[in-house]
Amino acid sequence: MILTINQYHNLIANSDLTRSLDQFRSEFASSGSVDRVRLTFVVQKKDDPTNQMFVFFPEARSVGVAHIREYISKMSKESVTNGIIVYGGSMSPLTEKVRTSLPSNYRLEKFHESDLLVNITEHELVPQHRILNDEQKKDILKRYRLRETQLPRISLDDPVARYYGMVR
């Protein structure tokens, strides 16, 4: 089954989710700049609390190989196999190569901050997307008398596919 960010729920208190901008600034940006390391958090899948994901916010503007190794080490220590990096600057081609060539049991996605300014799934021009489990997919194939190869494909680089964490 495909894991999506919507299938996870935060281990963050409701008071943290309803925090005002001024409250956020006083807690995470008291020195004038945001303490991005303190923003790191863990989420878990609603129906499987053992399936967790880290969300990292690198302090450095440029994400390097050392950051990737640090995150994988942290994930390994906590027995977490999924992660997201939300970065504000750049990621070198070598860092990207290291990130994409991680062992198959680790998945570390990346999002630039600018990709997350607007929730594209709520935009009026983006059609509703729904991820099907295996049983729902079989029902669709049976109802329309299709083979799996006849279903439309979505690119893994598609913004909605990235938002939902779709995997091939």
Automatic annotation (TrEMBL):
Keyword Transmembrane appears in the UniProt entry: no
GO biological process: transcription by RNA polymerase II; transcription elongation by RNA polymerase I; tRNA transcription by RNA polymerase III
Coiled coil: none
Keyword check for Transferase: no
Gene Ontology cellular component list: RNA polymerase I complex; RNA polymerase II, core complex; RNA polymerase III complex
GO MF, one example: DNA-directed RNA polymerase activity
One matching Pfam family: RNA_pol_Rpb5_C
Entry's family note: Belongs to the archaeal Rpo5/eukaryotic RPB5 RNA polymerase subunit family.
Keywords in alphabetical order: DNA-directed RNA polymerase, Nucleus, Transcription
Protein name: DNA-directed RNA polymerases I, II, and III subunit RPABC1
UniProt domain RNA polymerase subunit H/Rpb5 C-terminal: residue ranges: 118-166
Organism of this sequence: Coemansia reversa (strain ATCC 12441 / NRRL 1564)
SUPFAM superfamilies the record matches: Eukaryotic RPB5 N-terminal domain, RPB5-like RNA polymerase subunit
PANTHER family (alphabetical): DNA-DIRECTED RNA POLYMERASES I, II, AND III SUBUNIT RPABC1
Cellular localization per UniProt: Nucleus
Cross-referenced InterPro entries: Arch_Rpo5/euc_Rpb5 (IPR014381), RNA_pol_Rpb5_N (IPR005571), RNA_pol_Rpb5_N_sf (IPR036710), RNA_pol_subH/Rpb5_C (IPR000783), RPB5-like_sf (IPR035913)
UniProt domain RNA polymerase Rpb5 N-terminal: residue ranges: 12-75
